[in-house]
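Open question from group meeting: does this chain pack into something compact, or does most of it stay loose? Before anyone orders reagents, we agreed to write out a predicted structure and look at it together. Recording both the input and the output here so the notebook holds the full record.
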Amino acid sequence: MKNIKLFTITFLCLLLSVNIIYATNYYVSKNGNDANKGSKRFPFLTISKASSVMKAGDVCIIKAGIYRESIKPIADGLEDRPIIYKSYKNDKVIISACEPLSDWTLFKENIYKTHCSFPKSMKVENRMLFSKGKLMDIARWPNNIDHNPLTLDGEFIKKGSDSTKMLCPSIPNFDWSGAYMFYLGAHSGASWTRPIISSKPGIINYQLVSFKNWPFSNHNPNRCEGFDRKGNKQRGQIYLFGKLAALDFPGEWYYDSDDDEVYFMAMDKRKPSNNQVEITYRENAINTNRKSNIKIQGLTIFGGRVLLSGKKIL
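Structure tokens returned:
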């Protein structure tokens, strides 16, 4: 009986030893080099290098710094041996989906510009610009005066607006074609963003929205629900964005995809310092890449999405 117990204990210890042997800690540091072996003394420079060699049970330990790359596991972990990405001790580790801009030149008045190229595959709605870590507004009308992303700061529309046309006498009189319109229903039951096809004084023509199905059937510009700031019945609010001519307020920016130029008016209206302004360059800061048993610990994500796919993402 004693021999059986001794054998069992020895066998369990051997299993534990096998797990330890096949689990490796890989270190990543801003002072590292991807030609290193990834040890604590000789760390990798990038997380992607660690991902390329990690297997079930391995741990990627990341030291302090900003890492401008995406975490994207190559291998699956196992239920009892997940692949782990975590910060070193209490280090502040930032996984950034952004790249900094520099070499600003004066465009006109308080607006500066620089060369920039968003990835061609990046959707328009995922393009963002940050200044000193804060999200800025795409050039728009009306201006976001309170700089609060949770308030609409829109303009009320008039009777006669419909599924392809918005009437608003206060719209600035320049060509809005190629820009976008955001609409919020009077009852806040429906909203949409549509490309603007053409414009003329007080009128915006936009891509068709069908009113056949709910909620648009009940919440659309043809219906009066609620009141505007003057106590008049209102049909919803709009704001327009994505036109260089609308760039007239601190914290606004615009991207010219034809010339790969970014235009920006800083909050203090001064010339932006190099690397003070950043744009999104990767849509995902973390993409588990349909891998299973992946564990993320103690990391800060900036400027991008966290795409979780696969089984048992911890």
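Observations to bring back to the group:
DSSP finds two helices and 25 strands in the chain.
Helices lie at 2-21, 47-53.
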